[in-house]
Amino acid sequence: MKLREIAHARTGDKGDITNIAVIAYRAEDWALLEAALTEEAVGDFLGAGAGKVRRYALPQLHALNFVIGDALTGGVTRSLALDAHGKCRGASLLDMQVQVDPTAR
Amino acid sequence: MTVRIGAGAGFAGDRIEPAADLAERGKLDFLVFECLAERTIALAQQAKLADPAAGYDRMLERRMRAVLEPCWRNGTRIVTNMGAANPEAAARAVREVARDLGLSGLKVAAVTGDDVLDCVADLPLAETGGTAGELGERLVSANAYIGAGAIVEALDAGADVVICGRASDPSLFLAPLVHSFGWAMDDWTHMGRGTLVGHLLECAAQITGGYFADPGYKEVPDLARIGFPLGEVEADGNAVITKLEGTGGAVTRSTCIEQLLYEIHDPSAYIQPDVVADFSGVSFEEIGSDRVAVRGGDGHPATGKLKVSAGYRDGWIGEGQISYAGPGCVARARLAIDIVAERLAPLGDEIDEHRGDLIGYDAVTGLPEQQAPEPPEIRMRYAARCRSCEGAGQVGEEVEGLYLCGPSGGGGVTARVREVIGVASGLLIATEVRTSIQIFEA
Q: Which top-level group of life is the source organism from (chain A) (predicted)?
């Protein structure tokens, strides 16, 4: 199953740091989200360098916030990237496969 | 007492119509326009150097013509950072609009002091690794993110419109709440809650369904006529986020959670000039149609330091694009990238950095191992950051040259050049930044 089926996302930028909030639509998917979206898994999927991803959890909102350093090739003002803000990254993250334990659902 | 505070713009180019609607029908106490991005102030500073009466938001007069009369009639006071590099000139311009509209007696306050260009020579900058002074003539602007204090002072002095330059975005909203409720500036819980309200509202439509719709998954009704948000704030700092009846968009728990985390790093430590706001215990509850109650914001003592944003000239970016279609379009676009790179190679050190992208394929995601199927068409984009405007211009010229001297079937070339304003940041002791206000009466 793709992450998109259970969660939505929003991306923001500050300087050369991007943050992606991932939020479960349903309370019952929170545990899966929390287990599947480790710092490492998200970093690997987005091609972020090792140790560049920091995760913060807000359980009462069923939300995870991923903060990714050195993510915007120098920041929005001088980056050569087409999407210099990295605004599209959150939506691309929703393409990630997440494992579902069939006995758990 | 409930304070009704609306968002009239979330960025410099934002739509005017929803702000005019809020001014007319919102029964607002305050309408706040956030219009100043990081690099905008450096561009404004350059405009001011060329013309001492310029350097403020180019849409200021248009926005004010749309909202000033209804705001005056409805007792709604305006707070904005549209002063950019020149709040005093902006205040004079607003006074002229007020006079044109016959709003005699309207008071416009200019907040100054954020411009610290004259005292940052020794300030270390994180991004450049050197001091601001070492940027020499390339340094264009240096502005401290000031807090709510000076805006509160202007409101206390009776200003109907408060115009500042660089102020922290949430502080534009926090200040009217401090003014209305009389919160102490070291009452950290209330500072945190007011900052939370400001953070939720500062991007305007981003909490009413903008930057949110995803057909089939996240539906937003009537997005074309999206309304801007307002907060109904209580004296304890908790609030209801809503929008006007009859406008498009939606205010839901989901739109609020997305905006809560927008551009946030550690949710328990959102560092602001007025407070270190703590959003870790925030909750949202849908209490009606397009009505969401927000509770549980908190705050910790301010750091006593202000972030300074320095703008500096950092060369020029030249860019060109060309399309290819049909079988083999990816291979032809890749060949085009190689050709442009080879033709630009003689520029040598003139080029700081360059890249070729395939739009529709790898330009945005940039995933290195991605083996996507070939799309029916592709757009090649080549970009380079150069030392000079002339060098940057050659990038587009070489892409255009692909028409006759490149792969088969290239079409639809576009090219552009823009100056790069780099932004670097440092920290100043807050007490070293002296703000002041000046009032202009129509």
A: Bacteria
